[in-house]
Design goal:
Length: 191
């Protein structure tokens, strides 16, 4: 009985995720130099964070923003719309310290695990400090579980994420001449 119940719960969770993945309003497309990355956003886990990401994407804030911190086997971080814009004076010294004009968000932690392809919100030490920056996981990292907000899962294009230029291990993943998000759109808006 317990085994059947566990299977039913896993199937229900899988079906809920598939429902979001199929919803163009909750699908983010990140265009990279090596191909598009499609992310199924998870408003079921983090409604406030998902709304902020969609608003920033719709305003073009993520276009040409660098992957300023990329650590092999861990994650690729981007989304610093204040200091990470490649066309408007990318600042390697400040990239990763900025956010957006929008207010920081209260944490929306969940029981979902941080595994390969999970998209999480970056934050400072304060759990309620996430704003515009996010990261895509290269592999599992259990120490992040219940400590960071999960906003989505890569649905396709992980091979393009794997090609993002890595940063220096000696400099906490800071990337010199970084790759960038060419354009970011909500699938419902893509023409």
């Amino acid at each position: 009985m317990l085994k059947r119940l566990s299977l039913a719960i896993a199937l229900a969770a899988s079906t809920a995720f598939a429902a979001f993945a199929a919803d163009p309003e909750n699908t983010l497309i990140i265009m990279l130099k090596d191909g598009d990355v499609t992310i199924a956003l998870r408003p079921d886990l983090a409604p406030k964070h998902v709304e902020q990401i969609k608003a920033l994407a719709r305003a073009g804030e993520y276009d040409n923003v660098a992957f300023h911190r990329v650590i092999e086997g861990f994650m690729a971080q981007t989304g610093d719309v204040q200091y990470g814009d490649m066309e408007n004076g990318y600042d390697a010294g400040l990239a990763g310290t900025g956010g957006s004009k929008n207010p920081d968000l209260p944490a929306e932690f969940s029981a979902e695990p941080f595994e390969r392809g999970v998209v999480g919100m970056a934050r400072a030490q304060d759990p309620n400090s996430a704003n515009s920056q996010f990261f895509i996981m290269f592999g599992p990292y259990p120490s992040l579980n219940n400590q960071y907000t999960i906003v989505g899962n890569v649905e396709s294009g992980m091979e393009s994420v794997d090609k993002i230029k890595r940063g220096s291990e000696a400099d906490n993943g800071s990337v010199v001449d970084p790759d960038r998000m060419v354009k970011v759109v909500v699938a419902a808006d893509k023409k």
